[in-house]
Amino acid sequence: MNILIFGPPGSGKSTHSRKIVERYQLEYISSGDIIRAEIQKGTALGKEMERYLAQGELIPDTVVNTLILSKLRRVRNNFIIDGYPRTAEQVLALETYLYDHGIRLDVAIDIFISKEESIERISGRRICSRCGAVYHVKYKPPKVSGKCDVCGGELIQRKDDKSEIVNRRYDIYIKNMEPIIKFYQKQGIYVQINGHGGIDEVWERIRPLLDYIHNREKKRKEHE
């Protein structure tokens, strides 16, 4: 089963990607994780990407395509790609790769939330500067304000989590995703999921769909 999952900032796509990976034993390819890992290395490329993110801008397609497709070459099949593609150029790069390697996508899941919800979820997020644990001032506050429950490290707000940056990121996301959504609608694999509500509530909107696809693919392979 091969899945694309996307959604506006704060939609919970990474949280649900990990639940999907655990339930269906898929390989997880996260554009955000790959980009953050490069930034943490402190390379010239990482510093360049960090500047784009701090301004709420998209990282150039050529850079993102190289990072994601190099990971996909090692995985090949049974994967979920989180947060990619984000532009028409990225769709073209991905679809060309999949076609050349005989790989078929089963579903493109769009977890949708409003701009107001996106800003509230992201701007309230706090990250431990020491261990990377994630908190939220409203939904998951630490026991001691400003301190990590795990290691006692200082909690910080990432530059790209500030409300004005999230507002810009949301607008860019919606604009860029319109042609991508239309493309996958024509492919017959696009499904929009209501992302409002708690994690378990949203998961129960996703799980039956993927159970159906998983069982369908299992039966198809049994008859090959």
TrEMBL record:
Binding-site positions, Zn(2+): C128, C131, C148, C151
PANTHER family: NUCLEOTIDE KINASE
Protein name: Adenylate kinase
Domain comment in the entry: Consists of three domains, a large central CORE domain and two small peripheral domains, NMPbind and LID, which undergo movements during catalysis. The LID domain closes over the site of phosphoryl transfer upon ATP binding. Assembling and dissambling the active center during each catalytic cycle provides an effective means to prevent ATP hydrolysis. Some bacteria have evolved a zinc-coordinating structure that stabilizes the LID domain.
Annotated organism of origin: Thermococcus paralvinellae
Domain Adenylate kinase active site lid: 125-160
Enzyme class, broadest EC rank: transferase
Keyword Transferase: yes
Region (LID), start-end ranges: 124-161
Positions annotated to bind ATP: G10, S11, G12, K13, S14, T15, R125, V134, Y135, G197
Family of this protein: Belongs to the adenylate kinase family.
Keywords: ATP-binding, Cytoplasm, Kinase, Metal-binding, Nucleotide biosynthesis, Nucleotide-binding, Transferase, Zinc
Alphabetical list of InterPro entries matching this protein: Adenyl_kin_sub, Adenylat/UMP-CMP_kin, Adenylat_kinase_CS, Adenylate_kinase_lid-dom, P-loop_NTPase
TM regions (residue ranges): none
Subcellular location(s) per record: Cytoplasm
Molecular function as annotated in GO: AMP kinase activity; ATP binding; zinc ion binding
Pathway: Purine metabolism; AMP biosynthesis via salvage pathway; AMP from ADP: step 1/1
First-listed, main subcellular location of the protein, grouped into a coarse class: cytoplasm
Region feature (NMP): 30-59
